[in-house]
């Protein structure tokens, strides 16, 4: 099943993120605009109310309200959404301006106000906003005006005393005719004769709602378009940004079994992918080296196995060339048995190396006295050392945590190798000491030194310093050209790697030293 496109997934993620950002920003802008409009309209209402109060306070008596109606109405002129009503000391409407949708049609409507006003002793004046004065006894015109007859018919508003300051907190809100949102303020004004007139300043907010609705719709359209554009652009940009990945995949596709030396090369690799390219090239380098080692190992194994087989075949052919005595046949069988033993050891060592490289290779770690184990190993090789006329001594003191069997095998391989290349009458030293949180086990022997260029390679499988690849060392041959299977030192290095330690060789004119370094647990 084909997976989802990474570019499409990231583009969708960017689109969702952009949508979330647009929603947050759009909501903030919408609320900020709404708050700013409301604050500005409230300020206009307050200023108009203050101005109307000052004009009313200049009147001598309530009769001046009707006479100066146009002057009072001028406080809201120029803004069709603003309306005003002035009530006399008796609580009845004296003048009104542009109150068409300010109040609901039921409950104190303009019609009832007109009928009551027509029978009132003092006729009130209604202004149509142009300064014309009409007789309020005309019920039809008064109904069209939409005002209320008395203060009692007004929506519940906080009535500001004549001595109190008019502020925004005193503004009330209600729903007018046709569901129009209305905000207004009701304030008293003290006339010169001591009577009190009441001024109502209101504003129809329908135009503001329509403005905010249009603004919201534009935000929605812009947000949707922005999200689609962001998704498209992000997809294209991601596709372009991922081109180096496609180039890396194409370059990696050129690597085959016959071209393991091929490396990933991409022009202008982004800095974020440099580590990936370096890691892939390092992996290919390790694979190439491992394949080369495997090829050399296979070739060396075939060569080393062919030698004893050739010896066995040659001895058998010579023995069968003519009749032989029983002693001669016995000698041939003994020689073939030695070659069989050599093949067995070689196969055993190869199998051990194969098992040791498996990730689930089991180690039985335990703590033991390293010097005591070195002494036991030296006693085991005592007969071989005596035959070679070589002395083996053990020194030092250290406790070590390791796999005991693997430890014995590593030291035994080094000791066997040392006995093989120590001149007669020479001395081999096994030493174990603790230093700087490490346990160092050293096997040193006298003999010809190993050249510096061979000190690391002697731990490779089947590596021999002697170019002749002789199975047995000649007199004075250099140490490191094993006379057995050529795997002894390779096994030592594998054992140390299993323990997380290291092994290295040091050689000079005095002695050659193989040092096993274990980390203390």
UniProtKB/TrEMBL annotation:
<dbReference type="InterPro" id="IPR003660">
    <property type="entry name" value="HAMP_dom"/>
</dbReference>
<feature type="compositionally biased region" description="Polar residues">
    <location>
        <begin position="119"/>
        <end position="131"/>
    </location>
</feature>
<keyword id="KW-0902">Two-component regulatory system</keyword>
<feature type="domain" description="Histidine kinase">
    <location>
        <begin position="300"/>
        <end position="521"/>
    </location>
</feature>
<protein>
    <recommendedName>
        <fullName>Sensor protein</fullName>
        <ecNumber>2.7.13.3</ecNumber>
    </recommendedName>
</protein>
<dbReference type="Pfam" id="PF00512">
    <property type="entry name" value="HisKA"/>
</dbReference>
<dbReference type="GO" id="GO:0004673">
    <property type="term" value="F:protein histidine kinase activity"/>
</dbReference>
<keyword id="KW-0067">ATP-binding</keyword>
<dbReference type="InterPro" id="IPR050428">
    <property type="entry name" value="TCS_sensor_his_kinase"/>
</dbReference>
<dbReference type="InterPro" id="IPR003594">
    <property type="entry name" value="HATPase_dom"/>
</dbReference>
<keyword id="KW-0597">Phosphoprotein</keyword>
<dbReference type="InterPro" id="IPR003661">
    <property type="entry name" value="HisK_dim/P_dom"/>
</dbReference>
<feature type="domain" description="HAMP">
    <location>
        <begin position="239"/>
        <end position="292"/>
    </location>
</feature>
<keyword id="KW-0997">Cell inner membrane</keyword>
<keyword id="KW-0472">Membrane</keyword>
<keyword id="KW-0812">Transmembrane</keyword>
<dbReference type="InterPro" id="IPR036097">
    <property type="entry name" value="HisK_dim/P_sf"/>
</dbReference>
<keyword id="KW-0418">Kinase</keyword>
<feature type="transmembrane region" description="Helical">
    <location>
        <begin position="6"/>
        <end position="33"/>
    </location>
</feature>
<keyword id="KW-1003">Cell membrane</keyword>
<dbReference type="InterPro" id="IPR004358">
    <property type="entry name" value="Sig_transdc_His_kin-like_C"/>
</dbReference>
<dbReference type="InterPro" id="IPR006290">
    <property type="entry name" value="CztS_silS_copS"/>
</dbReference>
<keyword id="KW-1133">Transmembrane helix</keyword>
<dbReference type="Pfam" id="PF00672">
    <property type="entry name" value="HAMP"/>
</dbReference>
<comment type="function">
    <text>Member of a two-component regulatory system.</text>
</comment>
<feature type="compositionally biased region" description="Low complexity">
    <location>
        <begin position="105"/>
        <end position="118"/>
    </location>
</feature>
<feature type="region of interest" description="Disordered">
    <location>
        <begin position="100"/>
        <end position="147"/>
    </location>
</feature>
<keyword id="KW-0808">Transferase</keyword>
<feature type="transmembrane region" description="Helical">
    <location>
        <begin position="219"/>
        <end position="238"/>
    </location>
</feature>
<keyword id="KW-0547">Nucleotide-binding</keyword>
<dbReference type="InterPro" id="IPR005467">
    <property type="entry name" value="His_kinase_dom"/>
</dbReference>
<dbReference type="Pfam" id="PF02518">
    <property type="entry name" value="HATPase_c"/>
</dbReference>
<dbReference type="InterPro" id="IPR036890">
    <property type="entry name" value="HATPase_C_sf"/>
</dbReference>
């Amino acid at each position: 099943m084909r997976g989802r496109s990474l570019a499409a997934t990231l583009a969708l993620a960017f689109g969702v993120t952009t949508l979330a950002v647009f929603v947050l920003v759009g909501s903030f802008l919408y609320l900020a605009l709404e708050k700013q409009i409301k604050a500005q309209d409230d300020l206009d209402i307050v200023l108009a109310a203050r101005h109307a109060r000052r004009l009313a306070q200049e009147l001598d008596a309530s009769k001046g309200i009707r006479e100066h109606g146009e002057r009072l109405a001028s406080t809201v002129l120029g803004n069709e959404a603003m309306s005003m009503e002035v009530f006399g000391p008796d609580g009845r409407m004296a003048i009104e301006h542009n109150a068409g949708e300010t109040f609901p049609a039921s409950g104190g409507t303009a019609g009832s106000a007109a009928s009551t006003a027509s029978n009132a002793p003092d006729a009130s004046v209604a202004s149509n906003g142009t300064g014309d004065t009409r007789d309020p006894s005309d019920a039809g015109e008064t109904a069209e005006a939409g005002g209320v007859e008395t203060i009692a018919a007004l929506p519940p508003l906080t009535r500001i005393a004549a001595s109190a300051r008019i502020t925004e907190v005193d503004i009330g809100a209600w729903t007018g005719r046709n569901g129009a949102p209305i905000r207004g303020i009701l304030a008293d004004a003290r006339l010169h004769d001591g009577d009190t007139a009441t001024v109502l300043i209101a504003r129809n907010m329908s135009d503001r709602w329509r403005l905010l609705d249009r603004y919201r719709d534009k935000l929605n359209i812009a947000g949707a378009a922005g999200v689609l554009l962001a998704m498209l652009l992000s997809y294209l940009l991601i596709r372009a940004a991922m081109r180096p990945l496609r180039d890396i995949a194409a370059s990696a596709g050129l690597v085959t079994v016959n071209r393991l030396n091929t490396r990933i090369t991409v022009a202008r690799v982004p800095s974020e992918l440099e580590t990936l390219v370096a890691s892939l090239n390092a992996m290919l380098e390790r694979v190439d080296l491992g394949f080369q080692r495997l090829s050399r190992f296979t070739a060396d194994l075939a060569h080393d196995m062919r030698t004893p087989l050739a010896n066995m075949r040659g001895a058998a052919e010579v023995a069968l060339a003519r009749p032989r005595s029983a002693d001669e046949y016995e000698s041939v069988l003994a020689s073939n048995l030695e070659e069989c033993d050599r093949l067995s050891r070689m196969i055993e060592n190869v199998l051990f190396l194969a098992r040791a490289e498996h990730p689930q290779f089991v180690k039985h770690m335990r703590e033991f006295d390293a010097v005591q184990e070195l002494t036991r190993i030296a006693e085991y090789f005592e007969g071989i050392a005596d035959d070679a006329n070589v002395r083996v001594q053990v020194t030092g003191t250290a406790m070590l945590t390791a796999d005991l069997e693997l430890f014995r095998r590593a030291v035994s391989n080094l000791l066997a190798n040392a006995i093989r290349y120590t001149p007669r009458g020479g001395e081999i030293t096994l030493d174990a000491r603790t230093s700087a949180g490490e346990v160092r086990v050293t096997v040193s022997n006298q003999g010809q030194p190993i050249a510096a260029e061979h000190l690391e390679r002697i731990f490779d499988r089947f590596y021999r310093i002697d170019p002749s690849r002789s199975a047995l060392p000649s007199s004075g041959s250099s140490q490191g050209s094993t006379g057995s299977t050529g795997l002894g030192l390779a096994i030592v290095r594998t054992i140390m790697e299993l323990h997380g330690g290291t092994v290295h060789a040091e050689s000079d004119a005095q002695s050659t030293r193989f040092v096993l370094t274990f980390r203390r647990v």
